[in-house]
């Protein structure tokens, strides 16, 4: 982030009062990627808010927001912490014991994009995870976000997915 923007935008950890914005950002993210029809935006935001009201206080979900002047939230990013089974760590003598963090809901309001806000959010998030000793971090990158994540050290993996919506 350039110096002028750095003074205009502050990244801070999100709290309960930020849930409505976090939920709206999640729905907007899926909408902007073309994965959410307009009639599903509010149901997704409502379901997200319900989830976050439990997960944030429990510490299962951590979130950060970027505030632009005057105290308007212009972006956010979150991470869900999940337990994993112990597994070998490639090229390391020890085991990966977890938890694992999955980065979710990285979103910046359209008028504030291309100003380094997503990168500032991600660097804050990654720093907080490092301070907690969390070494395994995954995410699903949108086409728009891929370059940022690669700059931050993320690499493509062999993940595959099976989705069963109806049986």
Flag low-confidence runs: none
Q: If helices are DSSP runs of H or I spanning 4 or more residues, what is the number of helices?
A: 5
Largest sheet: 5 strands, mixed
First-to-last CA distance? 47 Å
Please state the CA-atom Rg, rounded to the nearest Å.
17 Å
Class by SSE composition: alpha+beta
Mean pLDDT: 92
Can you write the helix and strand succession as a string? Answer: HEHHEEEEEHEH
Beta-strand content: 15-25%
Helix content: 25-40%
Principal-axis shape equals globular
Please provide the count of β strands: 7
| Strand arrangement across the biggest beta sheet | 1-2-3-6-7
How do the helices and strands line up, and which of them pair or pack?
Blueprint: H1 3-8, E1 9-13, H2 19-32, H3 41-58, E2 61-68, E3 72-82, E4 87-88, E5 95-96, E6 100-108, H4 117-131, E7 136-139, H5 146-151
Parallel strand pairs: 6-7
Antiparallel strand pairs: 1-2, 2-3, 3-6, 4-5
Helix pairs in contact: 2-3
């Amino acid at each position: 982030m350039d110096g002028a923007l750095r003074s205009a935008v502050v990244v801070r950890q999100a709290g309960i009062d930020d849930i409505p914005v976090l939920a709206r950002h999640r729905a907007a993210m899926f909408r902007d990627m073309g994965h959410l029809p307009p009639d599903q935006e509010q149901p997704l935001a409502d379901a997200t808010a319900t989830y976050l009201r439990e997960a944030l206080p429990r510490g299962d979900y951590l979130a950060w927001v970027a505030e632009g002047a005057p105290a308007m939230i212009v972006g956010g990013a979150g991470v869900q912490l999940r337990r994993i089974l112990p597994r070998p760590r490639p090229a390391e003598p020890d085991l990966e014991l977890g938890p694992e963090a999955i980065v979710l809901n990285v979103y910046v309001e359209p008028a504030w994009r291309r100003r380094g806000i997503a990168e500032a959010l991600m660097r804050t998030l990654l720093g907080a995870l490092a301070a907690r000793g969390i070494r395994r971090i995954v995410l699903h990158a949108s086409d728009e976000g891929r370059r940022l994540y690669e700059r931050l050290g993320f690499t493509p993996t062999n993940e595959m997915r099976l989705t069963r919506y109806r049986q």
